[in-house]
Design brief:
Layout lengths: L4 E5 L3 E7 L2 E9 L3 H14 L5 E8 L5 E5 L9 H10 L5 E8 L6 H18 L3 E5 L1 E8 L4 H11 L3 E5 L4 E8 H11 L6 E3 L1
Helix pairs in contact: 2-3, 4-5
Length: 199
């Protein structure tokens, strides 16, 4: 996979795993902030208030820079970590998976528990639609009217479409470009005398 792309799920998805009477309900959500994570957790804890455990893991950011795994009272490493492991295996980010466990009366043991959380998570991910996104750089361009044709020609050559155009007193527009092509665009634009580029 290119270094300027990341994968996330397009919408919520659910999964299920049953073992020796215990039920593991998995819920996957696309999220971009810790606040969103907290909101989903609160709602699920209220909705499934009679469940024994609500284990979860999340990964945030295009470079997977923020993550957390929580066992919610299960033996250490048997709930959150297997969920997190599945998210890494699927190469996903901006995702929260919560697995709600209803205890069936028979202990599964540490490896059985870890396997159950893993299987429930995998089932939810199998039901999810996965999208690939690019990591983009945003440039703000500011220039006088005589430069318009030159700027537009470079954008066209680079295959970049302008956004948020404002041609009132002078010309201002934003361009969003894929990180891997960003330097090439910047180099081409910076050769134009009188063009102000900022990020």
């Amino acid at each position: 996979m290119a270094e300027d792309t990341y994968r996330m799920i397009a919408g919520a998805a659910e999964g299920l795993y049953k073992e020796k009477g215990s039920k593991f309900l998995a819920f996957a959500f696309p999220v971009t902030t810790v606040e969103e994570v907290k909101g989903h957790l609160e709602r699920l804890r209220k909705e499934y208030f009679d469940a024994r455990h609500h284990c979860y893991a999340y990964i945030l950011g295009p470079y997977k820079e923020t993550y957390r795994a929580n066992d919610d009272g299960e033996p250490s490493g048997t709930g959150g970590r297997p969920i997190h492991g599945q998210l890494l295996s699927a190469d996903l980010t901006n995702i929260l998976v919560v697995v709600v466990r209803y205890f069936g009366g028979i202990l599964l043991g540490a490896s059985g528990l870890a396997n159950a959380y893993k299987a429930a998570t995998r089932d939810a991910l199998d039901h999810a639609v996965i999208e690939e996104h690019t990591i983009d750089d945003l440039y703000h361009l500011h220039f006088e009217y005589p430069l318009m044709n030159d700027v537009m020609r470079i954008l066209k050559e680079q295959g970049v479409a302008p956004r948020n155009q404002d041609f009132a007193l002078d010309c201002r527009l934003d361009v969003s470009v894929r990180k891997s092509q960003s330097q090439r665009l910047y180099d081409a634009l910076s050769k134009l005398y009188g063009l102000d580029i900022s990020q």
